[in-house]
């Protein structure tokens, strides 16, 4: 059975919405900064730090893409963006954007570790509310 983690963009997040293209740019930025770590220690760390490439399907407009790896310990991570209606304390409804990170059944424990790393990175950058695969919640925004 697949597992899901979510990064919810709350009122105090740096952005209220995120597009698929922005998510791809964050992925490229993350790969870039992890490869710089390898340069500092003079080791080809970029191939091991986050060994995924973006793979797109013919139905790109559906709001998701997946990351595929050629490494033997890693397989796939699916990333998508969407919105949901939430009920506020004053009983009004609001549309809230979120990023969904999915591990399909074929994913490995290595995929789960890398997905956790990337989701924490994204939640920190966006100051979001991270709902981890194990059901726990991490708050990366200033709470009142």
From TrEMBL:
Protein name per its UniProtKB record: DUF1885 domain-containing protein
Species, as recorded: Peribacillus deserti
Transmembrane segments annotated in the record for this chain: none
Any matching Pfam family: DUF1885
């Amino acid at each position: 059975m697949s597992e899901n983690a979510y990064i919810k963009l709350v009122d105090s997040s740096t952005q209220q919405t995120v597009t698929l293209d922005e998510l791809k740019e964050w992925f490229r930025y993350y790969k870039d900064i992890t490869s710089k770590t390898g340069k500092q220690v003079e080791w080809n760390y970029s191939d091991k730090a986050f060994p995924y490439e973006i793979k797109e399907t013919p139905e790109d407009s559906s709001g998701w893409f997946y990351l595929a790896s050629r490494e033997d310990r890693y397989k796939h991570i699916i990333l998508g963006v969407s919105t949901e209606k939430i009920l506020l304390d004053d009983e009004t409804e609001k549309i809230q954007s979120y990023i969904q990170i999915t591990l399909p059944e074929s994913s490995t424990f290595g995929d789960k570790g890398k997905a956790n790393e990337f989701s924490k990175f994204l939640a920190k950058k966006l100051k979001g509310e991270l709902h981890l695969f194990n059901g726990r919640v991490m708050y990366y925004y200033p709470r009142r």
